[in-house]
Amino acid sequence: MDARLNEWLEQASSLYGMLPKEYAWVIQLFIVVLLTLTLNYIAKRFFDRLAQRFERTKNQWDDTLLDAARKPLGMLIWLVGLFWAMDIVRANSDVDLFDAVEPVRRIAVIAMMAWFMIRLAAGLEQQLMEPGPKRRPMDATTAQAVGKLLKASVLITALLVMLQTLGFSVSGVLAFGGVGGIAVGFAARDLLANFFGALMIYLDRPFKVGDWVRSPDKNIEGTVEEIGWRLTRVRTFDQRPLYVPNATFASISVENPSRMFNRRIYETVGIRYQDAEQMASIVEAVKQMLIEHDQIETDNQVLIVSFDNYGPSSLDFFVYTFTKTINWVRFHEIKQEILLKVYEIIRDHGADIAFPTSTLHLPDPIQIYKDQAEHE
């Protein structure tokens, strides 16, 4: 095999020497392209083999690292081949445009490294939200905050390194940023307010992605889908997206029903006045039914069933209790079951639920006379 390779190289060298000097760079360009294709093919096969081996391991971080490096490294191979070919062309050309190859090459390498770090940060964010064999998953809000901070750090660092590579003074750029920060702050105070509003949400954690939130001060109610640096996207219950600036949450009250421990049933029921003698036994039976119900919380929450009011056409008692579930659909199923059992208890005691009625009292009997002329 080595003998054949040496023979092929000798033939290629003799062919290269036979070419006119002005066309020799074309062969060099062809060799560079061939080497780039070959190296890209070898790298692809190498990553495929490595991916198959990493799939058999329990560690997920190696898969994340491999996935983050695959595309940037493949692009880097093509860029190296491209710039190598451009160096060959520049050596055989007098065009001044090729003088920009070297700084562009440095910027491209920095960009590929930044791309790799950003993909790694995205993979880290995804891994933090997935449960592991020995760790609990991080909530989506915190994981997204960590990912965004890492990506922002990588982008800022890459930009500063690129400026330093192009010959700009990084200290001068930072000084300009410090002096111009005041003007930018006045011009973009709303943007900065939203940014610090996002930091407040990440630090105070009034809600997270997936929570049901509601504001009594604003017409905001729905499920949190995304917390960005400027806006928070809330999906309302009629499936419309609602985009709320983060600064808004610094000046309004926000309810988070998703963090409730129990859901409350608070209903008033009225029976007829002629069933007044049954009120005490009905109240006691309803209370006992709630105590024995397996979905009613009786240990840590208040349970009250009590005669409450003399209504215009009914004697009212109220039911005040809490369910064990916080699921909205399940809560209404339990509430329906409770209300139907209350009705059954009322009917079992020979009473009935009242409805609005009016009674007309007449002090004397009414006699109807014909017209006086006809009477006469």
In short:
By secondary structure, the chain is an alpha+beta fold. The chain has helices at 2-18, 24-55, 61-91, 101-129, 140-165, 170-187, 189-204, 279-292, 328-348, 372-375; strands spanning 212-215, 220-227, 231-235, 241-245, 263-271, 304-310, 315-323. Helix 3 (61-91) runs antiparallel to helix 4, helix 4 packs antiparallel against helix 5 (140-165) and helix 8 (279-292) runs antiparallel to helix 9.
Explain this structure.
With 376 residues, the chain is an alpha+beta fold. The N and C termini lie far apart (145 Å). Helix 2 (24-55) packs antiparallel against helix 3 (61-91), helix 4 runs antiparallel to helix 5 (140-165) and helix 8 packs antiparallel against helix 9 (328-348). The chain has ten helices and seven strands. The mean pLDDT is 78. A four-stranded antiparallel sheet has the order 1-2-3-4. A three-stranded antiparallel sheet has the order 5-7-6, covered by helices on one side. The protein is elongated.
Note the topology.
Elements: H1 2-18, H2 24-55, H3 61-91, H4 101-129, H5 140-165, H6 170-187, H7 189-204, E1 212-215, E2 220-227, E3 231-235, E4 241-245, E5 263-271, H8 279-292, E6 304-310, E7 315-323, H9 328-348, H10 372-375
Antiparallel strand pairs: 1-2, 2-3, 3-4, 5-7, 6-7
Mean pLDDT: 78
The tally of beta strands, per DSSP, is 7
Number of helices: 10
Rg value: 39 Å
Strand order of the largest sheet: 1-2-3-4
Strand/helix succession? HHHHHHHEEEEEHEEHH
Overall helicity:
55-70%
Query: How would you sum up the major sheet?
Result: 4 strands, antiparallel
Derived structural class: alpha+beta
List low-pLDDT spans. none
Net shape:
elongated
Distance between termini? 145 Å
| Beta-strand content bin | 5-15%
